[in-house]
Amino acid sequence: MNRKEINEIKKRFKKESCTFTRICGCYVNGEHAQVTQFGKTFLNLDEEELFKYLDIAKKVLSGTEGNNLLELEFPLEEEEAGGRQQFLLGLRESRLKNEDLLNRFYDLIIEHYSYAGNYLILLFHDAYDVPVRTKDRRSLDESEEIYEYLLCAICPVTLSKPGLGYLEESNEIGLRLRDWIVGVPDAGFVFPAFTERSTDIHATLFYAKNPKEPPLELAEGVLGCSRKMTAAEQKEVFRLILEDTLGPDCSYETVKDIHDNIQERISENAALHDQKEEAEPVELTKETIKEILNASGVPEEKVSQAERAYDEKAGDAKLYADHVVDKRRFEVKTYDVVLHVKPEKASQIKSQIIDGQKCLVIPMDANENINVNGIQTTV
To answer: Helices marked H in 38-170 — which ranges?
Structure first.
């Protein structure tokens, strides 16, 4: 699912356009035991409650694709009888009215979600009448198909902080009662995926609030999908590969050159595609990384170590150039200074020894000024 397809579904999560048919939930305590379950017709909810649930559903479609939002494909064995995809299709077709299927789903979440506290499992069912669109993207009244899907959200439930409040019954100020509050989703998914504005039963869209530590055991245990690295994880793995490969000789100039060479590959790849055509991302395979290291002046004996480091850190996972470098800025960080510069400026920054002191030298244009706390100054 691309951003346009995600937004097409998400923008319907408003009272006037929402078509959720049913919502079900299961509250789980810190001992992984079910406390209570519920099932309701969504549009019969009180208005304030309905808006709160819509906010939760929106969060599952929020964030960055490839980072918070991962499109995962089902292995062939999960599409056969008894597989997780077939189970989810049955749950969808039941429209969340089959108690046995719901209990099995809740048990799967509890088994594979390693969260220490209390949490709420929510399941929404929706049937979206997908309108036909013309080439100029205008919507027509007639329908192309009905996209029927499930949206799952797993929300931490925490105790509110103690505090003072007005106690209406006794007409005094005192300690207010502490409540258990449902937070924003920590994880969730949409099944099936909505690909090219059509139902794609071979994939699901997985959501993780924290892309650095996504609960992908849910993707594997509940959905049966293979693990896929988020952009944050890819960036960390690439960092570890470079550190293992370069060792103590990991100099500023070398890393800057590696960064520049990756940016150059991204730019060349984009130039090969028409502006209206979305470029395929540049994959950083073992061979690609070795080529980049060679072009960056890394000694051959170090380059040969990159393959071992790649196998050890990345394994079968794929790394992409857009995820391991920031196309918008180049960051240089010391103990007490952080510099953010445009990538095209990075090649001008030099490390030098001045009067016996290690320094970073940033060249400036003759007519360029320095902004200090919003105040324009001269050098």
So the answer is: 47-60, 84-93, 99-112
State phi, psi for 56 to the nearest 5 degrees.
-65, -45
Which run of H or of E encompasses 233?
helix 231-246
**What's the CA gap between 314 and 285, in Å, rounded?**
10
Rounded to the nearest 10 degrees, what angle do helices 252-271 and 286-295 cross at? 120
Pseudo-torsion of CA 138, 139, 144, 147, nearest 10°? Answer: 120
- Smallest CA-to-CA distance from 246 within 237, 259, 255, 234 is with 255
Model confidence pLDDT, tens digit, residues 144-175: 789 999 999 999 999 888 888 888 888 899 88
Q: What is the pLDDT of residues 133-144, one digit of tens each?
A: 766 556 555 677
Question: Percent of the chain at pLDDT above 70?
Answer: 95
Q: How far apart are CA 203 and CA 64, in angstroms?
A: 18
Give DSSP secondary structure letters for 133-156: E-TT--EEEEEEEEEEEEEEEEEE
Q: Are 227 and 216 in contact (CB under 8 A)?
A: yes
